[in-house]
Amino acid sequence: MQDVTDWNFWKLISTYGGPDVYFTEYFRVTETSKLNKYILKSIVENPTGKPAIAQIIGNDIASMVRTSRELQKHNILGVDLNLGCPAPVVYKKKAGGGLLRFPSEVRELIHALRDAISIQFSVKTRIGFDTPEVFDQLLEIFAGAHIDLLTVHGRTVKDLYRSSVNYDSIQKAVQYMPCPVWANGNIYSYQKAESVIQQTRAAGLMIGRGAIRNPWIFSQIRDRSHSVVPFIPSGRDVLEYIHNLAAAVTSPNEASHKRVQHLKKYMNFVGLGIEPQAEFLHRTRRAANLDEFFGICHEFLNHSNPMEMTPFAPESLPENDTLAGCHL
Ligand SMILES: Cc1cc2nc3c(=O)[nH]c(=O)nc-3n(C[C@H](O)[C@H](O)[C@H](O)COP(=O)(O)O)c2cc1C
């Protein structure tokens, strides 16, 4: 996730169990682009002990091919094409989710990338731009290009992040595609993970916001699949996570108010799991410095009660906050 799941976050979440494979933030590709050094650090100095997949976004075929070749010189499991980013600044340039309006261009790009990528080549897609009607055609393109993995975020680009997720479309992709398909969208608990796998028969799951809210989610899913009772964090465990987050993603050299500002990006997700009145979120959003911020955190979380960390209202997340992550 752009500007969120960087090297620092990878390192932190790996200490909570973490996923089996990590996707980088997207490398923005244009005719003049060079590999972003900050994102490249996640690959070159991968702190997780697990494989990394490099994600790219763009539409210029020669540049996308060049970039995928450069990336393959590094230690990655695969290259992933982003066909989902819904930020207007991205889709209006016909990149990310914007490409889904132009299936023939998707076809051309994917075939060129398939030829250029000798390791795993995967695609992360939404189910259409403003309607899922195009999804069958997209699946036919993906299958015809012999990609190695397809991740489906079961929303259209215009749905952004709030609508319900169309898991039926993901199930359709699972049935149609010759390669493994992973399900994505609103997987916020190990119970939800289990039901999405049952419903879609997907071979795997990609988890975004749920992992920031609940870094234990991957080990909970693994435990559950091995019939081990999953660990449920207490308020104090969540408090410790927020302290760890502050230490991981901000620097003591930064001014206190800047550190809080930076943390708020993560708190948009974490806060939704804390309490249903949204008071925690409301108050932490207004905290002016770290002392004030952690004072509020202690007020809400200095207890030993279990915290499921499921979002009480996914809809309350302001789109501006989520879209701020995408830029091109
Ligand atoms: C701030 C933000 C940044 C994101 N950046 C990326 C990205 O760089 N690449 C990508 O494939 N998806 C990105 N996404 C989308 C997520 O990967 C995911 O598809 C979406 O949030 C739905 O899944 P979730 O409910 O598990 O979060 C981003 C989402 C958010 C909210």
Q: What would you note in describing this structure?
A:
- The structure is a single chain.
- The protein is globular and about 55 Å long.
- The chain folds into 2 domains: 7-215, Alpha-Beta Barrel (TIM Barrel), CATH 3.20.20; 235-307.
- The two termini are 14 Å apart.
- With 328 residues, it is an alpha/beta fold.
- Helix 3 packs parallel to helix 5 (103-116).
- The chain has helices spanning 7-14, 37-44, 61-71, 88-91, 103-116, 135-144, 167-176, 190-200, 209-213, 217-225, 235-249, 256-270, 279-285, 290-301, 319-323; strands at residues 22-28, 52-57, 78-83, 120-126, 149-153, 181-184, 204-206.
- The longest helix has 15 residues, at 235-249.
- The protein has a 7-stranded parallel beta sheet with strand order 1-2-3-4-5-6-7.
- Bound molecules: flavin mononucleotide.
- Flavin mononucleotide is lined by residues 1-2, 4, 25-26, 55, 82, 84, 124, 153, 161, 184-187, 207-210, 322, 325.
- Flavin mononucleotide (FMN) binds next to strand 1 and helix 9.
